[in-house]
Each structure stands twice: as structure tokens, then as C-alpha cells.
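Support request, please re-run this one:
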Amino acid sequence: MAIQTARVGKNNRAQVVTIPLEYRFPEGMKDVFIRKVGEDVVLSPRPVDWTSFLKSDVRPSDDFMQGVEDLPLQERAFP
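Re-run finished. Output below.
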């Protein structure tokens, strides 16, 4: 697998990365998620809705939320 490079520059006070055509995000995409994994900076498309996620097979593990207790109900007086 050949390693591609992208050009890094400045635009006013922002840092800008020019991405090669084959790595560009779809036309019209306005936002991406950004995170650091070690020294790597990873960009991921930000979905406009949750449809694809909800249709996916992503499920919490069996021990998700195990040992977490609900807080007691708070009594409130309403006028």
C-alpha cells in the first residue's frame, strides 16, 4: 500500500489540510469528527442523522452498565 501525503497550510488563524482527491469527503459534507489516536489525527464523517447507526449491528456488550445503580427519585413540590 503506497503512502499518500497531504499538504498542510494556514488560512488566517486556522490550519488547513488539502486532502488528495481519492480521500476527500463527499460533496456537501460540512462537518467531520476529529480525534487523536496516539500521534495520528483521524477524521471521520459526521452523519446528518442516526439512521445508518441504528440500522448497524453495533450493540453494547453484555456487561454494559453492570454495577451502575439508578439514583433515588427526588421528591419535588410543584406550585
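The chain has a mean pLDDT of 91. The CA atoms of residues 6 and 23 lie 10 Å apart.
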